Amino acid sequence: MFRPASVLAAALLSVPISAHALESGPKSPLPMFDLQRLRLDPAALGSLVVGTGRTLESGQLRVALNYHYEQLPMHFQTRWEPGEGTGLVENKMTAHLTVAFGVLSWLEVGGELPFILTQGGKPTLEYFGPNSGGIATPWLTARAALLRQSKGAPINLSVGFTAGLPVGSREAQAHEEYAWQPRLQLGYVGEGFQLGGEAGVFLRKRQDLGPVSYDPKDIVGNELRLGATVTSLHGETTRGEVSVITGIPLNGGRVGAEMLIAIRRHALSSLDLYVMGGPGVGAGFDTPTFRFVAGLSWATSKVD
């Protein structure tokens, strides 16, 4: 005999069991790649994230410490729905140490050392996300100026190269077997402002996350990275910046972009305090819905 009450009771009792199974059942690790998309510019002569073709003066040193928060930096969606849904990583906090040094008047070297402080999210039925901290992929950079307005050229133009070291934590989803990014940067310095843009190719091992999201478009791999910025210059106390960065997949994946607005405060001639934040746009699973950075930098002489 059919008993609706019995069927309803059994269904209700099965809900916590299924939820518990989702949390505690066997899980597989994710394909390995570094989840962090943001690269801070160690010299920050353009914006904090986009270069303008300029290099530090010979002998000039800049050191910066940054706190970095990301909301939903790893969540799967088929269309852009800001802030919607849950993710394998829902909140992530990272500290970044950056250093840049002017070797020659036209040559600059630098580096970035990120350390994940904490991160966490919700697992899927078969996969768990990273829930531990640790060192992320360190980056080494070199930039050479080809054209300089200070030498009479109409624009600033430079070439740069960034390489990731394969020592990031696998447990923290912060490891790349290899990662390189050659870039071309250009800019123009006007009266109290500067414009800049850059284009580069980010090269890394292709990883298919289709088995995780059940969507064949969720892939990480090579990308065309583009950026543009406009900043104020030579202010006595503050400097404003607006930057747009985007990644266009070259071998599968989804487009992601971000708009980042920053304010720098010149606390001393050699000390800057700054904040930067903005939304992510697009359905790329590794594009956060919001990003915030706060930091301080010290330089042997005033950068701008």
Report on this structure.
- The chain has a single domain (46-299), classed as Porin, CATH 2.40.160.
- The chain is 8% helix and 48% strand.
- It contains two helices and 15 strands.
- The chain has helices at 4-24, 210-213; strands at 61-74, 89-104, 107-120, 134-135, 139-147, 156-164, 179-189, 193-204, 207-208, 219-220, 223-232, 238-249, 256-266, 271-281, 290-299.
- The strands form two sheets. The chain has a twelve-stranded antiparallel beta barrel.
- The longest helix has 21 residues, at 4-24.
- The protein is globular, with a radius of gyration of 22 Å.
- Residues 1-23 have low confidence and may be disordered.
Blueprint of the fold:
Elements: H1 4-24, E1 61-74, E2 89-104, E3 107-120, E4 134-135, E5 139-147, E6 156-164, E7 179-189, E8 193-204, E9 207-208, H2 210-213, E10 219-220, E11 223-232, E12 238-249, E13 256-266, E14 271-281, E15 290-299
Antiparallel strand pairs: 1-2, 1-15, 2-3, 3-4, 3-5, 5-6, 6-7, 7-8, 8-11, 9-10, 11-12, 12-13, 13-14, 14-15
Task: Please describe the structure with a list of short key phrases separated by commas or semicolons.
304 residues; mainly beta; Porin; 12-stranded antiparallel barrel; two-stranded antiparallel ribbon; 15 strands; 8% helix; disordered N terminus; OmpA domain-containing protein
Helix proportion range:
under 10%
Distance between the termini: 83 Å
Task: Calculate the mean pLDDT score and round it.
Answer: 89
CATH class: Mainly Beta
Indicate the radius of gyration in whole angstroms. Answer: 22 Å
The order of strands across the largest sheet is 1-2-3-5-6-7-8-11-12-13-14-15
Q: What overall geometry do the principal axes of the alpha carbons give?
A: globular
Number of contiguous helices: 2
Report the sheet-strand fraction: over 45%
The arrangement of helices and strands along the chain is: HEEEEEEEEEHEEEEEE
Number of domain units: 1
CATH topology: Porin
Low-pLDDT runs of 5+ residues are 1-23
How many strands?
15
CATH 2nd-level architecture: Beta Barrel
Helix/strand/pairing class, anyone?
A: mainly beta
Keywords: Signal
Protein name: OmpA domain-containing protein
Organism: Corallococcus coralloides (Myxococcus coralloides)
